[in-house]
Amino acid sequence: MTLSVRRVIKSKPAFGTLVVVIYATLAIWSTWPLARCPTTCLPTGTSDSLTVPMFNLWTIWWNAEGFLQGTNSYWNAPIFHPTPNTFAFSEPQTTTILMAPLFWFTQSRVLAYNIYLWFALLLNGLFAFLLLRKLNVNRSIAIVGGAMLLLLPIVHWQQDVLQLTPLWGILWTWIVLLKISRSSSLFLGAELGVAFGLTFLTCSHQGFFLAVLLLGAAGTLWKRLLNPNLWATLVIGICVAAVMTGPVVFHLRKASEENSFKRHPMTVLQLSALPGDYTASKGRQLIEFDICAARDQSRLSPGWFKAGFAMIGVILGLKRKRWRWWTMFMLITMLLAFLLSLGPNLLIYEWRPWWTLTEYCPGFSLVRNVFRFAFFVQMTIALLAAQGLYGAFLISRRLCSRKQQSYIVKPALLILCLIAVFEVFPSEPALEKIPSAESHAGWIQFIRENTPPNHAIACFPFAAGFKVKDFETTAKWMYFGTFHGVPLVNGYSGFFPDEYFDICEAINAEPSSEAVFRKLADSKVKFLVVQRSWDKKGAFSDTRFDSILIQSVYSDPVGIDVYRLQRVETSSDQLK
């Protein structure tokens, strides 16, 4: 290799391109064979249901379309008609609006979803790389650290929950805090606010968790607490973050208060971690350890080798002055995240701290999947593991001759790095094919062209139960809704309005009840869209009640029938 070629490879632009290519390759490999069908399939992680992926696909569509309609229309999403503010019932995922140009250009909802997934994985690796470089970790081990973050077991296990995949905002926030720990400025304060704001707008769930952990680890800055520049920096950061997240927080809180949202204690308990869950990992493993006290559905370890390297990273980090603050910050964040992930399972004598937090601290009472604090546990362990690998490299460089480094140390370090990255690697994701909108184009076009403004449709069947799998048909109705744009009485979300449960229970109990149809008609429901295979008894076929008329207006060969729902005057109405 000539000297000029070496210089090109070592240049920042060329090396940066190489890093991006490596992480892009890992992102595609870790989700393979998704790249074979990026316009027709969605990954469902380890679940067997399309409900959550299709709901997130609908969310991406609504961020692209609803944002153009103004603030009020944006939050009044076309589900759970006529309930207002329905987009605040779950994760808005506002940053997915970045996919709008791709969505408008290709008109492929599925492609926009999958590219967002790959892009999030790539950024996870890239921001981890930048963070480690800020710690002066050499390029090679920084690449390894980024790869560990990109392949983090919990991310790929929860891959069906798209908003949990992007970790880059958290990593960016930590990068800025690392800068602030060394020097303060108003610019860094603004950058901190932007980084945290984007984290929250990407996933409010993770943004809330990050805020809690930042408060818990704030004491690590105790040496600089009397520095007015630090306080000015933090105040600027808080103000910028408040401006960015304020509208979202307002609507989320408004929806929660107006609908009295809360989580069932038993559900929270079941979705909290146990200490033993951290003894095993999700995914394929190079070495199966016999030490395993984890539940099958909750394997939260990032890997035993990573944990071992992280211990080395902690020891070396506390000894090295330049790494000391960062190591303390990571260590406290990890321990606090671990304890919080236990939720109500953490018992101190007769006291369960989680229930105290839900009672006195805003936001905690809305948390359902408490175990997801484990994301932060795995992230901190992976970063500390990279720190440990680099620390071991520095020690070996001092103790070994150049010849020993070339023939022993570097090959051994390469093997250790590969083990750290691939000791747990993602299982092949389950892929589910999205229903073809083209085959449903007939009834979709009829609904789009014939539904008056401010009217809605009800799609049958409704969900027969309350498990995620039960809402898969509902999620499909929502997907078809991205093509006709008409509000649905149906819906799926993180929370549900009471009105939905009332109408759903009534429909499942007696779908052809006059009272049910009257309630739908009073809510300005214009059409009933019925899956023919579900309506085997023909309950909707040209039915007339005293106050309701149901007429068949469109029959699609794909197996969908459309009925017009019309309110008619009764004799008592005429007397009035």
TrEMBL record:
Superkingdom of source: Bacteria
Keywords, comma-separated and alphabetical: Membrane, Transmembrane, Transmembrane helix
Keyword Plastid: no
Transmembrane parts of this sequence: 12-32, 111-132, 139-155, 161-180, 192-218, 230-252, 325-349, 369-395, 407-425
The protein's name in its UniProt record: Glycosyltransferase RgtA/B/C/D-like domain-containing protein
Organism expressing this protein natively: Gimesia alba
